[in-house]
Amino acid sequence: MKRIAILLLALALPCAAAATDYNVRPALSHLSFQGTYQGAEFSGDFKDWTAVISYDPADLAHAKFDVVVTLASAKTGDADQESALPGESFFNVAKFPTAHFVTTGFRHDGNTVIADGQLTLRGVTKPVSLGVVFRTHSPSSSTLDVAGHVQRLDFGVGTGDYADTSVIGATVKITAHLQLEPK
């Protein structure tokens, strides 16, 4: 009897230790950024990005986010900003075409789930933490909302004259809303 109980436990453990893998529905999802320029707020979206999401709020130890962003896809609706962002002073897409965020772990901060990870941007890797809100709407539909802040100068975004934080704010807010379906 003891052997059967051990065998059942051994068979059940792999099932209990697996977060759900999700496909992102790109047409219903977005990855955005907000900052300030001369005291006025501006916002933009990245149009080209991929996200590998494995998540279960009851099993954060096995959750993982892996996001790759094509930096040249940044759109703000302002022609001057859109022409400047890919250049050497900002994203330098000729040398660094993508940004990459991968989680290193998840934790609770009160009632909030925090995704800790590493963001690589312009060849610089720094820790970034994102607040996570996950909702299941049906067996085939969930949403994942994340938000956090990065200090642009930590990654060398906005060099030379653009390093002046009285013109372009130092803090950039990153938000994402992902429509998910289980794989």
Describe the structure.
It is a single chain. By secondary structure, the protein is mainly β. 11% of the residues lie in helices and 52% in strands. The chain is built from 2 helices and 11 strands; from the N terminus they run αββββββαβββββ. It has an 8-stranded antiparallel beta barrel with strand order 1-4-5-7-8-9-10-11. A hairpin with a 2-residue loop joins strand 9 (124-138) and strand 10 (141-151).
How would you summarize this macromolecular structure in one to three sentences?
The protein is mainly beta. Helices cover 11% and strands 52% of the residues.
Q: What are the main properties of this structure?
A:
8-stranded antiparallel beta barrel, 52% strand, 2 helices, 183 residues
Segments where pLDDT lies below 50 for 5+ residues?
A: 1-16
The fraction of residues assigned to DSSP E strands is over 45%
Strand runs, count: 11
Q: Rounded to an integer, what's the Rg over CA atoms? A: 19 Å
H and E order: HEEEEEEHEEEEE
Number of helices: 2
What is the end-to-end distance? Answer: 37 Å
Mean of all residue-level pLDDT scores: 92
Largest sheet: 8 strands, antiparallel, barrel
Content-based structural category: mainly beta
Name the helicity range: 10-25%
Assign an overall shape.
Answer: globular
Strand order of the largest sheet: 1-4-5-7-8-9-10-11
